[in-house]
Amino acid sequence: KKMDDDDIPQLSSHTLAALQEFYLEQQQREGMKTSQGFNQYSIGSIEEDWQLSQFWYSDETASCLAKEAVLAAGKGGRIACISAPSVYQKLKEQDGEDFSVCILEYDRRFSVYGEEFIFYDYNHPLDLPKNLLPHSFDIVIADPPYLSEECLQKTAETIKHLTKGKILLCTGAVMEEQAAKHLGVKMCKFIPKHSRNLANEFRCYVNYPCGLD
C-alpha cells in the first residue's frame, strides 16, 4: 500500500540504527557489485527504496513495456521514462537499437546513468531542464509514485508537456477514471506485475492502438 508522508510512522532510535546498518551493508554490496563489473543497467542493480514508494516491475513486465515503447517510438524514436526506472533499465539493455531514452526520476541514485538522468519532482511538474524541449518525445511512459489524484494530475502535466502524443501510463486500477480525465488514456488488457506483490491492483493505460491488448 502506498502511503502519504503523514501516515508514515516515526521510527524509534533503535530501529533507525538498525536501518542505518542495513543501508551501510547495502552500500557495501553496491560497492562490491560495481567493482565486479556488475551490469549497472540490470533490474535490481539499484535496490527498491520503499521510503520513496518504489516498486520495481518483474523482469517480464519491464521487458514487455520496453518492447512496446520501442515499437511505439518507431525508428530513431525518443522515449521518456517518468518514475519508471525498471523500464528504463530494460531499454538500456537493448543497446545499439535505434532509439534514445531519458529517465526522469526523483531518486538521485539513478544519476549513475549520466546525461540521460533528469532529476524530477512531480510537485514541480514543469521544472525541467531547458534542453528537454516540449513535445520532443515519441512516447512517454510514466508510473506516478503515489496513487493519489494530485500526484497523477501533476505527473500528467509533465507527460503532456513532453509527449508528441503517445502515452503509456502504469498505475492502480482504482485510478482509471482520473487517468481518463487527466490524460485521455484507456485501460488495456496487459496486467503489469511487480517483483514483489503489491496490495493494489496495477494496470496499464494508453491513448493509442498498442500491442499490449
From TrEMBL:
Claim: Transferase is one of the keywords in the record: yes
GO terms, molecular function: nucleic acid binding; protein-lysine N-methyltransferase activity
Q: Which GO terms describe its biological process?
A: methylation
Question: What cellular-component terms does GO give this entry?
Answer: cytoplasm
Q: What is its main location?
A: cytoplasm
Specify whether Transferase is a keyword of the entry: yes
Q: Which domain of life is it from?
A: Eukaryota
Keywords from the UniProt entry: Cytoplasm, Methyltransferase, Transferase
Q: Which reaction does it catalyse?
A: L-lysyl-[protein] + 3 S-adenosyl-L-methionine = N(6),N(6),N(6)-trimethyl-L-lysyl-[protein] + 3 S-adenosyl-L-homocysteine + 3 H(+)
Which compartments does it reside in?
Answer: Cytoplasm
HAMAP family per the UniProt record, alphabetical: Methyltr_EFM5
Query: What's the protein here called?
Result: EFMT1 methyltransferase
Source species, please? Zosterops hypoxanthus
